[in-house]
Amino acid sequence: MFSVGRLRKGVRQRDNSFSISIFNTRKVLRGFNIPVIYGVHKPLYEIRELTFWLWHEAWRILWITPLFQSRLVRPAPHLHIRGRMPYLSGNLETEIGANCNLSGASAFIGRSASYVTPRLRIGSNYVIGYKTTIAVGRNVEIGDNVLLSAGLFLAGYPGPPWILLNAQEEPPIPTIKLVTSLLKTAPG
């Protein structure tokens, strides 16, 4: 009885002339290419790129940004999220300023074992790079005009949550503040 599995096994082993001819035919067909006609294929490629760009922008504007902003204290004006939706975890009170650029591969994590609600405040005109994680223990403030590089892990935790099991009060957690100012250079 004929089966595709047996045929594939025979073609891989090339144990007879029929399987050798199928193998060679497949090898020729696999390497076949249509010649490139630049006047036709280049515009088709540009149409493809434009279509993908329009689709991703519509997805970002109509789906990703509104869903992310629903988790904020108030919507951030002119927020631009690149890629997918950033990961938000825990009971985190998040405030974001205006004109901000955020990588979708970022994570904002609020400490679940905290007695107070963790608070993340990000100023205006900031950029958060790819795969940046901000773990908030109690309070993290990032000022205006800040660039956080890709792969940054910023932790505002005193340690693992199980150290609080026998504690009467939560140990002090420092407030992290990142503040920058624009540097002005003299001409000449």
Write the layout of secondary structure elements.
Elements: H1 4-13, H2 17-30, H3 38-69, E1 80-82, E2 87-89, E3 93-96, E4 101-103, E5 107-110, E6 119-122, E7 127-128, E8 133-136, E9 139-142, E10 147-148, E11 153-155, E12 176-178
Parallel strand pairs: 1-4, 2-5, 3-6, 4-7, 5-8, 6-9, 7-10, 8-11, 9-12
Helix pairs in contact: 1-2
Low-confidence stretches: 181-188
Strand order of the largest sheet: 1-4-7-10
Structural class: alpha/beta
What composes the largest sheet? 4 strands, parallel
Please state roughly what percent of the residues sit in beta strands, choosing from under 5%, 5-15%, 15-25%, 25-35%, 35-45% or over 45%. Answer: 15-25%
What's the order of the H and E elements? HHHEEEEEEEEEEEE
Distance between the termini: 87 Å
Q: What is the helical fraction, as a range of percent?
A: 25-40%
Tell me, rounded to a whole number, the average pLDDT: 82
Q: Which geometry do the CA atoms define?
A: elongated
Number of helices: 3
Cα radius of gyration in angstroms: 27 Å
Task: Give me the count of strands.
Answer: 12
Q: What is the total number of structural domains?
A: 2
3D structure, described in words:
The protein is of the alpha/beta class. It is built from 3 helices and 12 strands; from the N terminus they run H-H-H-E-E-E-E-E-E-E-E-E-E-E-E. The protein has a 4-stranded parallel sheet. It has a 4-stranded parallel sheet with strand order 2-5-8-11, with no helix packed on it. It is elongated and about 75 Å long. The termini are far apart.
